[in-house]
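Subject: Protein record for review, amino acid sequence with backbone structure tokens
How to read it: Take the token row as a discrete description of the fold.
Enclosed: The protein record, placed directly beneath this head.
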Amino acid sequence: MTNKITESNIETFAIKVLQKLGWQYIRGLALAPGVKTAREGKS
């Protein structure tokens, strides 16, 4: 099995590292209530 470097893998790794340093992970939609999707950027 080959491990691939993907954007998702990098993001997951970065989140885990930051959480170990005391940062809290909050999903983007929780930061922008009323926005239908994170990519739209508007309600």
